Amino acid sequence: MTNQDRRWIKSYDEWVDPDLKVPDVSYVELVADCVRQFPDQAAFHFMGTTLTFREVDDYSRRFAHFLAEAGCRPGDVVGVNLPNSPQYLLAHIGILRAGCITTGVSPLLSAKEIAHQLRDSGARVLVTLDAIFEHRFLKVKDQVPELSHVVVTSVADFFPGLKRVLGKALKKVPTGKVVPVSGKTVVRFMDVLRAHPPEAPEASISADDVCLIQYTGGTTGLPKGAELTHRNMVSNMHQLMNWVNAQPGSGMFCSGAPLFHVAGLMVGMLSVAMGWGQILIPDPRNTRHICKEIARYRPTHLFNVPSLYQLLLANPKFKTLDFSRVKMCCSGAAPLSAESFRGLEGVVGEGKVIEIYGLTETSPILTINPLAGPKKLGSIGLPMPATRIKLADLETGTTEVGVGEEGEIIAQGPQVMRGYHNKPEETAHALREFQGQRWFFTGDVAKMDEDGYVFIVDRAKDMIIVGGFKVFSKEAEETLYDHPCVEYCALVGVPNPDRPGSELVKVVIQAKPEYQERDPKELEQEIIAYCKENMAPYKVPKIIRFVDEMPLTAVGKVDKKALR
């Protein structure tokens, strides 16, 4: 591979190693190294409680011991169905220590969706909230025959004593009744920690063992479980730490990204591997709480989705905080609008806002903007060290497009998944041959400039075809965000009844508060006139709908499936 094939290397910050070599170790070995180096440093800050790495080590070993006693063997799957909390990461590290595999189960799933994921992954044990246990799990308890144990916890289990008592008494935290279930052992998380010694089983774990089965969003059908190995996750951690020139034991994360999503879990796992602290945010919509935590603990690195940054920017308190310790303000999982980028940079400091791009299947990061070098507005940055990116022709999928031309992002790198769990056909479609080598086809459409910066144009499935012309929704959305009335917007294609095979452009808009009292018809005409002036005719929306609140997925992306 020549540097001409990797034109992005010339744009790397000077300390970045383009051919980064990753140690051949499991994540569990990184955790052990962290505990040896930083036993008494703060690992997690959560609602007034602080746990050290020594305590994380102790509790996770106890949980691993419980799993072994419950009959779990290396390779068995354990579901973790919790919000951001110490319990999530303690269980997760314990699962990996036992040689088992974690599957993150979103607390926002319905009972039916929870049952599907548990069956599809073959989970033997589920860790869940008491409220979810009572109101959702009990509805499907007979639909998960392979599940032998359910471990139940409360959001408040790691609250400080008085806050825990008051939270439950005043019904400030969700609660649920825990009852026996025929054919399954039901235990409480805190009882597990008290009843088992801190002696993890002697599991043999290699870098190529699967550590996660992470389910994708399922926008084109039922969710698929991406199998991510220890090597995948450890590689992506080393790539990121090399990129930001980070040192062990020297930083602190604050992230509202959910741990059941690979991006949030990556931050949580990385903080422990690096001996960094992390502020755990259980409710990312509570910006008042987030501001208090930032003021109290003064993190060095923020990691959130764009919708949370927009909520924070709307809170006047956020703009008064001291961000002098913050080195990087990372945004991922969805595009950050130019307006939000400029607004956020104006608060945290110039040059600190960095957009990243990745997928569940890539552990997750593929590209990232430089920390010190130029950040091109609208770009998702440069390919990570030891990562190759090409843009495949949208029509053939077999040839590479030129500089500045649209193509599907395909990738190679140590962070690319092993495949989809029990789905060989889906795996063969995603990981397929391109010019004699196996590449991961992302389904995302992008352009790359002469300096190697990548610019997302659209999801391939979100591309709208109007009379043979391609409309890339992200490009049109960026234009709409420049209109003063638009708070959120999203373009989708709907079938054109008069022209089979063609679509109509539909835009859904959440107006800013000061525009919500305006006559919708008048506002619609104003937006159409604006679009006609700023877009090619075939891109101009034919249907405009206003909503009070834009539907978002669990990780803060606009839910285009719902909009369609």
How would you describe what is shown here?
- By secondary structure, this protein is an alpha/beta fold.
- Among the domains are: 27-205, Rossmann fold (3-Layer(aba) Sandwich); 389-450, Luciferase, Domain 3 (Luciferase, domain 3), CATH 2.30.38; 463-563, GMP Synthetase, Chain A, domain 3, CATH 3.30.300.30.
- It has 16 helices and 27 strands.
- It has a nine-stranded mixed β-sheet with strand order 2-1-11-10-12-13-14-15-16, with helices on both faces.
- Strand 25 and strand 26 (503-511) form a beta hairpin.
- The longest helix has 17 residues, at 53-69.
- It starts with 26 loop residues before the first helix and ends with a helix.
- The model has no long low-confidence stretch (mean pLDDT 92).
SSE layout and pairing:
Elements: H1 27-37, E1 42-46, E2 49-52, H2 53-69, E3 77-81, H3 86-97, E4 101-104, H4 111-121, E5 123-129, H5 130-135, E6 149-153, H6 161-169, E7 185-188, H7 189-195, E8 210-215, E9 225-229, H8 230-243, E10 252-255, H9 262-274, E11 277-280, H10 287-297, E12 301-304, H11 306-313, E13 328-331, H12 338-348, E14 353-358, E15 365-368, E16 382-383, E17 388-392, E18 407-412, E19 419-420, H13 424-430, E20 431-434, E21 437-448, E22 454-459, E23 464-466, E24 469-471, H14 473-481, E25 486-495, E26 503-511, H15 520-534, E27 543-546, H16 560-563
Parallel strand pairs: 1-11, 3-4, 3-5, 5-6, 6-7, 10-11, 10-12, 12-13, 13-14, 26-27
Antiparallel strand pairs: 1-2, 8-9, 9-19, 14-15, 15-16, 17-18, 18-21, 20-21, 21-22, 23-24, 25-26
Helix pairs in contact: 1-9, 2-3, 2-7, 11-12
